[in-house]
Write a structure and sequence with these properties.
Radius of gyration: 20 Å
CATH class of the largest domain: Alpha Beta
Number of helices: 9
CATH superfamily of the largest domain: DHBP synthase
Largest sheet: 11 strands, mixed
Helix content: 25-40%
Structural class: alpha/beta
Number of strands: 15
Order of helices and strands: EHEEHEEHEEHEHEEEHEHEEHEH
Shape: globular
CATH architecture of the largest domain: Alpha-Beta Complex
CATH topology of the largest domain: DHBP synthase
Length: about 325
């Protein structure tokens, strides 16, 4: 089994694993990542193999500080500098033109690269000791629920990971916001841990949210972040009725209910009390989905939160969790 630790000596050992072309699961403030040396094409390719991830899906390069950005990219516009200054370290990823240091294996063949500085002491210590960039998508099988604890990583990937660094539960709980700064105006490609409102407050103008089916960034597959149970989204006032209907048809139903009404009588196999705070909801979202899987649910009924602030990211994850599953 892969070792689980967060000691200084094992951070040094994990850096050695990266230098040797191995894979390290590392904690970040968003989710646990499956890391490889960003400059080692063979190691980067192994990420795709372990996850079962299509090679056309780009990865994010994690670096130790904003001062390293120009080592990895070309043409850093003013907007990118402003956003990096305000939100790094933190759950914001910037898409810029790829520098020569980044292999095409890490970008899905694109001439752009996604870069961020994580806000977690273990991740930052690893990046500092390693001395380079680390490509790190979520440490799970492609399309499944992202891991927010080291136990989630071990349960899903086991010995496929060469080293697991323990860092406790992830504080943000959903992936980073991805902003493309290569065009005439910045555009949000994926909502995440930094809100649209906060981004616009820094830049001083509205951000575009393009609609495209072309996979340019992580997390854009129609079905993503998905538990084993099928997810059904309905209007808030219809959640209990939908759950009871499905239960009557023989489903083992898990229900997302607001914490204020989680004690309401409902015919269901399991109930999750959803926090009123968007930050707490985001922090717990993937754990809630995993819990209902572990409790044997085959159907999850939920509603979308208000799509403002962190609610936009939560709604995005729920929609993709409920998306059409690929046929086998």
């Amino acid at each position: 089994m892969a070792r689980v630790t967060a000691s200084i000596s094992d951070i040094e050992k994990a850096a050695g694993v990266l230098r040797g072309g191995g894979l390290v699961a590392l904690p970040t403030e968003t989710v646990y990542g499956l890391g490889a040396n960003a400059e080692d094409p063979a190691a980067v390719s192994r990420i795709f193999q372990v996850k079962g991830r299509p090679p056309s899906h780009p990865l994010i390069v994690h670096i130790a500080g904003a001062e390293q950005l120009e080592e990895w990219v070309q043409d850093v516009p003013t907007a990118a500098r402003m956003l990096a200054e305000h939100f790094w370290p933190g759950p914001l990823t910037l898409v810029l033109r790829r520098g020569a240091r980044v292999p095409l294996e890490a970008t899905g063949g694109l001439e752009t690269v996604a870069v961020r500085v994580p806000d977690h002491p273990v991740a930052l210590a690893l990046l500092s000791v390693f001395g380079g960039g680390v490509t790190a998508p979520s440490a799970n099988r492609f399309g499944s629920v992202s891991p927010t604890t080291a136990n989630d990583v071990r349960a899903e990937l086991g010995d496929a990971v060469d080293f697991v660094l323990e860092g406790g539960p992830c504080e943000v709980g959903v992936e980073s916001t991805i902003v493309d700064v290569t065009g005439e105006a910045p555009a949000i490609l994926r909502p995440g841990g930094v809100t649209r409102e906060d981004l616009e407050a820094v830049l001083g103008y509205p951000l575009a949210v393009p609609s495209t089916s072309h996979v340019r960034v992580p997390g854009q597959h129609p079905s993503h972040y998905a538990p084993r149970a099928r997810v059904v989204l309905v209007e808030p006032e219809k959640v209990i009725a939908e759950a009871e209907l499905a239960s009557g048809l023989g489903h083992r139903v898990g229900v997302f209910l607001p914490a204020s009404s989680a004690d309401a009588p409902v015919k269901a196999h399991a109930v999750v009390a959803v926090p009123a705070s968007p930050a707490a909801y985001a922090r717990g979202l993937y754990g809630f989905l995993r819990e209902l899987d572990q409790r044997g649910c085959d159907l999850i009924v939920a509603s979308l939160p208000a799509e403002e602030g962190l609610g936009l990211a939560i709604a995005n994850r729920l929609r993709r969790a409920a998306g059409p599953r690929p046929t086998v």
